[in-house]
Design a protein that fits this description.
- β5, α5 and β6 form a beta-alpha-beta unit.
- This protein has helices at residues 16-27, 39-47, 60-69, 97-123, 146-165, 196-208, 219-228, 230-238, and strands at 7-10, 31-36, 51-54, 77-80, 128-133, 171-177, 213-215.
- 46% of the residues lie in helices and 14% in strands.
- α1 (16-27) crosses α6 and α4 runs parallel beside α5 (146-165).
- The chain has one domain: Rossmann fold (3-Layer(aba) Sandwich).
- 42% of the residues are buried.
- The chain is α/β, with parallel strands linked by helices and 240 residues long.
- Strands 3-2-1-4-5-6-7 form a seven-stranded parallel sheet, with helices on both faces.
- The radius of gyration is 17 Å and the shape is globular.
Length: 240
């Protein structure tokens, strides 16, 4: 896909991978609208010249706020990038179920609801794309993050089914699967992490090439291992 001249809506674009995505997409000539929930980061992103809608996508209210902010706009590309993890490890403590529910909404329900609401807009464009950012953990989970892994696996399955549904239309579906990236979400989880700008660069390349999947960094190796032995991939990742 030629990104220049396209209008792109990127959720979670004020931090981490998203902050790099919006800048690289702008450098490609795209008009970028983004969303964040932290007021300070939203203000900083606005100061950098971006259109930012402040909304918390862990609830329907936040989804409605974002949709109201883009009402009437011609969106060519929707990038569902916003996501969060949550502590849910019975070996350490009883989980906070309210926090788990909010994470499930943010990571899974919000992308589905945004896709459903914006599908008529996307289908009306000559060329459109939905980019769902999942994770290498959608392929094989780790024991310490079952809710996060489950939401990303669910969004992966949704993306695959949606891609089949949209065959023959102008809407392409790309799933981006990052590895562990240096963000607030992964703070304290080891030292071998991918830089956000390098991760974003591979996702943008996947968009430009109309790929069905963008396996980023070490996820390429994980996909190879999984193709040979799903059991081995699960054994490796469960302890990660």
């Amino acid at each position: 896909m030629q990104l220049s001249g396209k209008t792109v809506l990127v959720t979670g674009g004020t931090d981490g991978i998203g902050a790099q995505l919006i800048r690289q997409l702008r450098d490609k000539g795209a008009t970028v609208i983004t969303q964040g929930r932290n007021a300070e980061r939203c203000a900083a992103t606005k100061a950098d010249g971006f259109e930012v809608i402040q909304a918390d996508l862990s609830s329907q209210k936040g989804v409605d706020t974002l949709l109201a902010g883009v009402q009437g706009r011609q969106i060519d590309i929707l990038v569902n990038n916003a996501g969060a993890g949550v502590d849910h490890d019975f070996r350490e403590a009883a989980p906070d179920l309210a926090a788990s529910d909010a994470t499930i909404f943010l990571n899974l329900n919000a992308p589905i609801r945004l896709i459903a609401a914006l599908m008529p807009v996307l289908k009306a464009r000559p060329e459109a794309m939905i980019v769902n950012v999942t994770s290498g953990l959608a392929i094989a989970p780790r024991a310490g993050g079952p809710v996060y892994c489950a939401t990303k696996a669910a969004l992966r399955s949704y993306s695959q089914a949606l891609r089949h549904q949209l065959q023959g239309t102008t809407v392409h579906v790309l799933e981006a699967l990052p590895p562990v990236v240096e963000t607030k979400l992964t703070a304290g989880r080891g030292s071998k992490k991918m830089a956000p700008d390098a991760c974003a660069r591979q996702i943008v390349a996947g968009m430009e090439s109309n790929a069905e999947e963008a396996n980023v960094g070490a996820v390429k190796v994980l996909q190879l291992v999984h193709s040979i032995s799903p059991k081995l991939a699960r054994k490796i990742m469960i302890r990660f």
